Amino acid sequence: MLKIYDVSKFYRGQLRTTDALTGVSLELPRGEIVGIFGENGAGKTTLLKCILGYLNYQGQITLDGQPITRKNIEKISFATCEHSFFPGLTAKGHREFYKMHFEGFREKRFDALMEFFDLPDHKPLRAFSTGQKNQFEVIQALCQGADYILMDEPFAGNDLFNREDFYKVLLGILEPQETVLIATHLIEEVEHLISRAVLIRRGKVVGDVQTEDLEEEGRTLVDYVKETYHYRRDRVSSALEKLTGQEER
Fold first, then answer.
1. Whole-number Å distance between alpha carbons of 59 and 82
2. Closest by CA position to 191, among listed 171, 212, 221, 162
3. Alpha helices for 5-43 (secondary structure H)
4. pLDDT digits (tens, 9 = 90+) for 209-222
5. HSE on the CB side for 1, CA within 13 Å?
């Protein structure tokens, strides 16, 4: 169980202090695929980085009742669009590196995913396209042998068909103890992939729902997001009216 209790993160600038997270509390048992949604700057990436210990924060985050330290950090992996691989190393070199450093490294899964994405073994990662780099980042996270797999906009730079096929593969390869947290804007695409949706707005959790419950109620995830965020349906028409009015003047 990954527990996040009353976590807050503040960024202090010269002129003001910005609240990136405020009192976030979540319990994430194993075996879930959780979507984390929110506008740009809502705090999604900050939350993932706090879990990993990349950022200092107030509050408490534990894994199986223990603080996350070097002793248990290998139970968590991270796929980030900022990239965490060695750009001068080949995919094959990364494979050997991970075998050496992670006892639970999944060789067969690595080879199968490399073949699925049709990625080259002997080319340095810096020579990959943006989409290929993001694909390889996801492969590393899924093959480390972690129980909790964190992904931050993992599908950036990938075409629609690659993403759709990958969702199907992901559902087919995950084992019961593996949990995936996906921070993304692709709400409609991942609606049928995830089992739970967590909504963050201005650093606070404003929604937490099982997608199965939404289906039983006859609501879509997009409907739930709009209702929770109090989406203004007249937003576009209002903006156009003001803009058109300005131009006429």
1. 26
2. 221
3. none
4. 999 999 999 999 99
5. 7
Are 159 and 131 in contact by the 8 Å Cβ rule? The answer is yes
Q: Which residue has the tokens 């879930």?
A: 32
Q: 57 is written with which tokens?
A: 């924060």
Number of CB atoms found within 10 A of residue 246's CB? 8
Cβ proximity of 149 and 178 under 8 Å: yes
pTM: 0.87
Residue ranges of E strands in the chain: 2-12, 17-28, 33-37, 58-63, 66-67, 76-80, 148-152, 179-183, 196-201, 204-210
Q: What is the dihedral of CA 122, 173, 3, 104, to 10 degrees?
A: -50
Sign of CA dihedral 136, 33, 23, 2: negative
Q: What is the pLDDT of residue 234?
A: 66
Q: Are 193 and 33 in contact (CB under 8 A)?
A: yes
**pLDDT per position as a tens digit, 91-131:** 999 999 999 999 999 999 999 999 999 999 999 999 999 88
**Interval 9-34: pLDDT, tens:** 998 765 566 789 999 999 999 999 99
Task: Say how many Å lie between the first and final Cα of the chain, rounded.
Answer: 60
36-64 pLDDT per residue, tens: 999 888 999 999 999 999 999 999 999 99
How far apart, in whole angstroms, are the C-alpha atoms of residue 198 and residue 179? Answer: 14
